[in-house]
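Protein in question kept in full:
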Amino acid sequence: MKNFLTQNFRYIIYGVIAILGFYLISVLMNPKTDMNELDKYKLDQLNQSIKDITETQKKLDSTIQNYNQELLKIDSTISLVKNQKTIIKEYYKEKGEEIDGMTITQLDSLFHKRYKY
């Protein structure tokens, strides 16, 4: 037996190295799929955080939609006021032009009607 080991020592070492090499390759190619409890807990916490963020985002989206509707109402009110402002400006421009063409007696009677003095 001693002679066999001494004569074939090199081949035995090559065989052991080859077996260890195949073992290492198989371990590296097939990663561990088991998760420990801490990793599972962390994943559950992350999932819960994602759900909370999603719910918050939905609430914010609905709030934004409400604000957009209010903005549309305000925009329509502003455009209505702009139109009324233009109409009033034209009315007083016409009245100013009428006053320019009036005589003193017509102007006096206009002020008398307007301010009731």
